[in-house]
Amino acid sequence: MTEAVNIASLIVQCRPERLADVCAEIRADATCEIHATDPCGKIVVVIEVPTTAPIAARADSFSRIAGVLSCNLVYHAIDEGADEPIEEYVQ
């Protein structure tokens, strides 16, 4: 059995002039991916971690980045993986 993975999505709203700097700080965390940005300062961040605690910690740390106005959790799921490996389809 594979280990569970917590997948969460956050919307970070920052001042438009700080967008590049905020994105750079978020990208410094290997568990985070930026999936979209908007010139108005919106950033869609996806986090993959083994437990739920780091999600809240990252949301808190993002909200403390200079220029960030808000950071909100918009999605959370736990992927428990498959009990058995999926065999490839062979013709």
Quick structural summary:
This is Chaperone NapD. The chain has 91 residues and is of the alpha+beta class. It has two helices and four strands; from the N terminus they run βαββαβ.
Walk me through the structure.
The protein has two helices and four strands, in the order βαββαβ. A hairpin with a 4-residue loop joins strand 2 and strand 3. The mean pLDDT is 90. The protein is α+β, with helices and mostly antiparallel strands and 91 residues long. The chain has a four-stranded antiparallel beta sheet, covered by helices on one side. It has a single domain (8-79), classed as Lrp/AsnC effector binding domain/regulation of amino acid metabolism (RAM) domain (Alpha-Beta Plaits). The two termini are 27 Å apart. Helices cover 22% and strands 40% of the residues.
Largest sheet: 4 strands, antiparallel
Order of strands, main sheet, comes to 2-3-1-4
Assembly level = single chain
CATH topology: Alpha-Beta Plaits
Question: Beta fraction of the residues?
Answer: 35-45%
Number of helices: 2
- Described by the principal axes of the CA atoms, the overall outline is elongated
State mean pLDDT (0 to 100 scale): 90
Estimated structural class: alpha+beta
Report the order of strands and helices: EHEEHE
Radius of gyration: 16 Å
Gross CATH architecture: 2-Layer Sandwich
Regions with little confidence, pLDDT below 50 for 5+ residues: none
Q: Domain count, please report it.
A: 1
CATH superfamily: Lrp/AsnC effector binding domain/regulation of amino acid metabolism (RAM) domain
In CATH, what is the class?
Answer: Alpha Beta
Fraction of helical residues: 10-25%
Count of individual beta strands: 4
Span of the ends, CA to CA: 27 Å
Subcellular location: Cytoplasm
GO cellular component, one term: cytoplasm
GO molecular function: signal sequence binding
Function: Chaperone for NapA, the catalytic subunit of the periplasmic nitrate reductase. It binds directly and specifically to the twin-arginine signal peptide of NapA, preventing premature interaction with the Tat translocase and premature export.
